[in-house]
Specification:
By secondary structure, this protein is an all-beta fold. It is built from no helices and seven strands. Helices cover about 0% and strands about 60% of the residues. The strands form two sheets. It has a four-stranded antiparallel beta sheet, with no helix packed on it. A three-stranded antiparallel beta sheet has the order 1-2-3, with no helix packed on it. The relative contact order is 0.20.
Length: about 70
């Protein structure tokens, strides 16, 4: 089970909390802008940011961006 939250109102990033293991773990990811939406399907998480980026993280290695796309209108 994973939980995701903003770092704070001023910071551009998110925290990922993993409930697996005895103590669980917490990972912080810095994003290019604030995030407004996300979806998960293990092992991938897709994050939508305020500046229209879609960023994909592999939850097995969440400190590295798996893929990134800039959405155009």
């Amino acid at each position: 089970m994973y939980k995701v939250s903003n770092l704070s109102n001023q910071e551009k990033g998110l925290k990922i909390f993993s409930g697996t293991g005895i103590q669980g773990s917490q990972i912080q990811c810095i994003l290019p802008n604030r995030f407004y939406s996300f979806t998960m399907r293990h092992p991938l998480m897709v994050v939508g940011t305020a500046d229209r980026n879609l960023i994909v993280f592999n939850l097995q290695n969440p400190l590295v961006t798996f893929s990134s796309n800039k959405m155009n209108q």
